Fold each of these.
Amino acid sequence: MKLPVKIQTTLEKIQNRTRASRRLRLILISVAIFLFLENLLLAYNNLQAKTPILGLKIDNQIISFHTAPGVERIVNKKFASLPTLKFLYNGQIFQVSAKDVGVNNNSNLLTAKILTLGRTGNLWQRVVYQNLAFLGFKSQKFTADISERQSALLALDLQTKIAREAQPPMPDFKNDSTKIIPAADGKKLNTAKFLILLRENFFNPPPNPIPLPVEKTFTAAHSEEEVRVLGTQSRELVQSPISITSSGQIFTLTTDDLKTLLTVVERPNPQNPQNVVLALRLSDTKLNQKLGEFATKVEAITNAEFNDHDARIAIYSQFYSGKRKNIVIPTGKGLAYQKVLGENTGGEKSIYLTFDDGPNDIYHPLILDVLKAKNIKATFFLVGNLTQKSLNVAQRTKTEGHAIGNHTLTHSFLPNLSRDAILKELQSTENILNIINGAPVTIFRPPYGGINTSVQRNSQQLGLKIKLWDVDPKDWSEPTVDELVRRVVTSAHPGANILLHSNHMVTARALPRIIETLKSQGYSFKTLE
């Protein structure tokens, strides 16, 4: 029997209301259950504050039910098993380890951070984070502190291995200076991009090596006539050898040596500094290597540092002027100072790392970083006028527990100066260093080991003890890292006072290996007093 339309309409309305009411009840029940679960989740995570929130992972490993010591063990295990990050260039693989970038395993800090995840911020932020973690969408990446200085040192190391200076066109000095060798492009590491790739990928390295960001470098355009003028000049400049003498030993650059050392560089145009012109120069690297060989002979006689600075000036003055004269280079030999070379360690197997010629804003901080990472204290002999230019670096040297010594105001060869001038060199530097040191500086190293009666009397007047050295690896002479490490390690002995410099890249690069090797041989490290 068909119901009247009015009744049917009424019944449909009732049914719709019933369905709507059921849906509403279902929604309310769902909301209530959701809120209950949310409160339960929040309550659980609040009550279990000594463990990570439910569902949280570290590198996809669930850590929810581990207490702080358990989380720290996981962090330490991941740190110990850090993979190497690989870079690729020109078919060669460069591997970067945690040690290379000075990774600092701050497991305590990372554990504390993990325990706070999802428990900070406002209520909404906590609810969202905890739900995402509970559903498996929150995985904390394992990270640690990477040393910026060590990373920069690594970049410089890679730069040394792959970089090539762009070479302007130049005469063929060795064979026929009338012929021209064409310009050659250079290449260099894009350091900024490399450091970004390092930070982004080190703790989660991709399966395949990352291409190193290397870019080409170019020289300016130069005319053939400009190059031919240099060829003519070179033939005049290498007609006769160049000689210097130090401690009775003669160093000579033959005409063939000069041809081998000759190179061409770009220099600002004196008339228009925005442009560059070509200039003749001797290769600094090759010249330093030759002078290093000569220095070994001189130092065997003098027990003092070879005066490489004055030697280069003497060589270049003869080279550019065309006038040849056997110039005598002053030597540090004078009074018998053997007693202040090696230190008395009382039978201990101790060694003294000392660094001259600082501070500076480039290599000196890198050396400080290495020493800090290795927990080693050293002695730094600082130059007064350089200290004024790099006060922050000098202050950091003292703050980090290293000993500071006087290395004169201008790094002059003191025996060539009057007694009053020597006193000024020492006293002015004392005035600068004493403020940084917080107490009078009491040790002094004369540049090049230059000592005479006036130097001795002035240092005694100021209460300065002269400290020389007995191991000189000549890090200024452009050795390779391997060679510098070998020179230091093979000459080391108990009480050795090792002369290094804080203004050379190779020293910063070799220092970690020097320390590790000497440690493995049972040496401990002390500062001079």
Amino acid sequence: MKKYIGLSIIALSMGLTSCNDWLDKLPDNRMELQTVDDVKGLLVSAYPDRHPAYLLEMYSDNTDECIGPDWSEADRFQRQAYHWEDITETGDDESPQMLWNSHYRAIASANAAIDFIEASGDQAKFSEQLGEALMCRAYAMFQLSTIFCNAYNPATAAQEKGLPYPTHPETVVGQVYERGTLEDLYSQIDEDIQKALPLLGSSYDKPKFHFTPDAGNAFAARFYLYKGDFDKAIQYASKALGATPAAKARDWDYYASLNANRQVRPEAYVNANEKTNMFLQTVYSEWGAVIYGGYQYGDQYAHSYRISYDEDICSIGPWGQASDRTLFKNSVWYNPVCADLFHGKIPYEFEYIDLQAGIGYAHSEFSVFNIETLLLERAEAYALSGELQLAVNDYNTLLSVYMRSPKKYTLTQLVTFYKNLAYYQPKEPTVKKRFEAPVYQIDEDGSDQESLLQAIIHMRRIMTVHEGFRMQDVKRYGIVIYRRQTDSDNVITGVTDTMTAKDPRRAIQLPQDVITAGLEGNDRVTVADKGEERFSDASYFFE
């Protein structure tokens, strides 16, 4: 079932090597810009055509290794991602190589548009396009940072590795770039966002696929949350959510009425007419096929029964057992012959270019910014800034649209439930995982703040399963990941590896050709360094 994507693999090394002829690939060398429509046309390519969800879900604690007679890996890429290896596969749509190429290719388009507008002498005429180009550049760089960098910590960002942030099209063959620091990277993203926001407009034929004011504010809210600037995160989230966010939420009753098989629900989830969707991204991706394409495809590494029932979409919460079909409007799909359980939200379509040979392009689409996710992001920002009741209000707003029989919870009820839960152990799992090394200042374990954050992060894990968000919470809160094996009876049979809060593998390794060309790679430990220092719980044996 392996798909062969018939696109040129651009070994993008940011001009670090002249053999890639990257100058020949630049958009401004393909088209002559003159009019507003010309720039609009160019900016279609300023949005990345790859998304990291598949890679990040394999990397995170949303995946177990499921051992069964009929369960096998999808391919080497899937295996390498699950085992946190430096990925050598380059042709898979969600490989580090493809993600790197796609995002820097989008940045090149944005830079071409920005340079043209700034040189035009009539920036007012192109103001909306300038705002879109700046926001596209910021978004692509932010996405790359969530893959290839550590989480932003104000105390250490000046010492952490960033990424090259090109601001102009290349004019010199062999131009050398440096990574700079994570602080530099975030400062540049911040600057682009602030320049872009007042310029954004909505004059698009298909606005849900562009950075409109709502999409821009939602992106700004996420960026400032990750940066630790909670006041700004709340400010921009509130602009996008409006006074009555529940009125803009997904029509969960309609969604629940749809057939759970195949593509019906996924297509509805990313429907551009759905009010909740503020920004949609169409991409090349096999992720939808791995989740629920063919039975048992890629099931060796899956969102397992044990994760589903012990930790997320079927787990227990203050509201009861999420697997109870009378509780939430979003039901869980499960077939006993498969290792994975899932929500229908990632569409999959295959475009054949040679029907007889069975080759072509795998396509998907993501709801990158929506009301439900933004509500939880604002709730988190409120909780981190000490406004616990406001965080509870947002939590309850989400439940008011997501529960079949909505309930409102008090701060005391949420705190009591999560405070009384035991912390997760790999063979005694719960929904509550310890914040070992958070990048934020958080009150002690069992405090009202910590317990409420557990509630918010638990709900986000349910709401955003399959979308790649979980790895960001793992990184930002210093959550330890254990690699477990389960069998066909859903018994946890082994713990084979761990990724501690300080493990350098949390920042995924840069593509090998980029490192070979001279850009510094991410830190790694040698095999000899692995062991007690990384795996502190001596009660578990590595088979």
Amino acid sequence: MYVAYSDDKVYKDVGDTRQLFIDDDVVAVVKNVTRRQHTPKKHPDNPLIRRDKPWEGNTYFRTSCYNVLRDEAEGLFKSWYQDFYTYGTIDKRSFSVETLRGRIYYAYSEDGLNWTKPALGKHTVDGHDTNTVFGHPPYREVICPSVLLDERDPDPSKRYKMVYLFHDAEVQHPKLAYEGRAGGGLRMAFSPNGVDWTPFEDNPIIPEWISDVQILTWDPIDEKYVLWGRYGGASGGSGHPEMDNWFAPVWPGKPEGVWGVRRRIYRTESKDLLNWAKPELLWDPGDEANLDDGYYGFVPWRAGEMHLGLLNVLHQVDNTVDMYLHYSRDGVNWNQLLDHRPLIQRGGAGSYDEFDVEMPTQPLVVGDEIWFFYGGMNVHHDWWIIGDKEGLDVPEAKDRTLGRDGHHLCLATLRLDGYVSLDATVREGWVETKPLFSTGANLFINGTCEQNGYIEVEVMDGWNNVWNEYSKEKCETFTGDSVRHRVRWAGKETVNEIPGSIKLRFHLKNASLYGFQFADSK
């Protein structure tokens, strides 16, 4: 049967981009094959960073209060994380988010596992030289940093970029910014190295942005900056002293005239970081969400040509946070994976990530793995903050040390492109693609085989006629585990000699196939 790629295209020009099987974009037909979602493996050394310095009050690895990047030019992993440094010194009667003061710390690592908090000579606390990089005199206190390593910028002094907020009600912009806990709008700073920061002289870049979640990203394919966050402030908030601004009543049916009151996420984009499009509401809890779910933050990235992203969801009643993997073809319309389960499960009772697993920073490709530097918490979302005021009978409301030591930087790893695989078990299955075109010389597959398992590939034209030199019988059987195995047929390995578009049929048994790629070299 002849199968066109789509209604308006005979074939898909895949170039040398990695093709993943997260959706059916290149899949025409399968037999005896199932799709499986995979879970990153938590590192045995977790947690990697925790509060362990005398000047640290509450190291806050939450959305959007930390980042981890890899600076390959310097050979370092770098982390920026927020500290509520007044935590533990505030009288319980006046304890609130407003009385918590914030500054930004810096740590680095050569291997991503062992981290150093360097004395930087910028800010001293009680005689201790600290690792503070921002939020110290002469600058105001800051919160919610989102850091981007921008190798495209020709100005070396702006190689690193940070968006952030002031944690100071005195810098509100009346009638420009709605009342909230942070004022002054969304601001930006630049740095050549991630340590020495200079605020943008024309701050704020978005005056009306005053909420506490903003995640700055760069899309390398569409070539634009994209900002994700809670634009404008908390939905349905009120300055009245009797208003519960943490959790307002919810109208699930969203009747006309009723504002969405749960946490939700906006998206805006820019070519120059200064001129931003009008933010559009992209994530708003609806029928797919539970009654108490709020969408806390969203961080996207590219995997091959696909958009992937993690949606951090606050379950308000249980006061826990989970993160769910989503995928998109255009970066605007998103779908949740079939299993509808968190990408990384929260830990068991007494673990370092029992109540909260979330992530505002993009995962990093390290060798043949994807590294997820996630925030893991063994305290609930807000019980440690307002539980005492509300009279909640929970440990965090009674023991201040639990909140102080409850937030950690953790790591989980996954094989490259190992989010989803197409699997066959004891019966041989096969996967047939839609018509594809590439000038790439070689075909590479990402797959793994169990005992007595195998993967074989044949190449066909659009009418399923097998090219003689590229038949299943002539394919050198793959029985191993590789993220980039070069397919060969009786010693022949180049596929760009075949004219026009082609279709692939993967035969597999007791094996998992994660994706494939046409490319000229290994």
Amino acid sequence: MLTAVIDIDNTLWDFAGVFYEKIIKINPNIPEPALWDSYYFWRNYVSEEQVIQAIEEIHTNQEMYSPFSEASDFLAFLVIEKGCRIIIASHRDLYCPHLSRLFFYYPSSHPKLNSQLIL
């Protein structure tokens, strides 16, 4: 069986958009996500502590955000059509693993999908 490792952020939901909304409040000069050209694009605009705080707030409140409308179909395609086992990858801290689980068990048009996820 093939295994597909799928990252949550920016693959299954729009993390960048929410992150941008958080950090633009700190520094309105930060470029929009389309202009982010490296992992450390934020260094000239906000501190590392501010970035970590923003990420923790987003992950802690994950249930407020919906997956991309295509997320269920994408995962179902990998499971049903390609026969993949899915591993959801995340860098979330130990304080919020249940939120990632809640995020994926939303009503799906693919009932087989939820039984195939490994979180």
